[in-house]
Amino acid sequence: MISEKKLGKILRDLAKDNLVEYINKMNEKTKARGAVGFLTNDPDHWAGYNVYTAAQLLDYLEKEYQHNLEKDERRQ
Q1: Rounded to whole angstroms, how far apart are CA atoms 59 and 63?
Q2: Which of 34, 51, 61, 72 could disulfide-link to 56, CB 3.0 to 4.6 Å?
Q3: Any idea where the domains of the chain sit in the sequence?
Q4: What tens-digit pLDDT sequence spans the chain (76 residues)?
């Protein structure tokens, strides 16, 4: 039987792998469009924002987008 601690580590590692894979795919699409700005695929960077999965990354990016729209509206 696998311990709860070991299972937790396995699940965290899988989430990191999925996050990195998702970011790499996003960056490939971005590069194909000719853009030069890319997201870092360092899971430690994203952990600082409490982002561990692709779904959390998408939520984070959406919130940042909304925040920037609101900032732009205040400047006008």
Answers
A1: 6
A2: 51
A3: 4-75
A4: 778 888 777 777 777 789 999 999 999 999 999 999 999 999 999 999 999 999 999 999 999 999 999 987 888 7
- The pLDDT value recorded for residue 19 is 94
Separation CA 57–CA 40 (nearest Å):
12
Alpha-helix residue ranges (DSSP H) falling in the chain? 4-32, 43-47, 54-75
**Any idea what DSSP says for residue 63?**
H
Scan for tokens 């790499």, then name that residue.
24
Asked whether the beta carbons of 57 and 51 are under 8 A apart, the reply is yes
DSSP label at residue 53: S
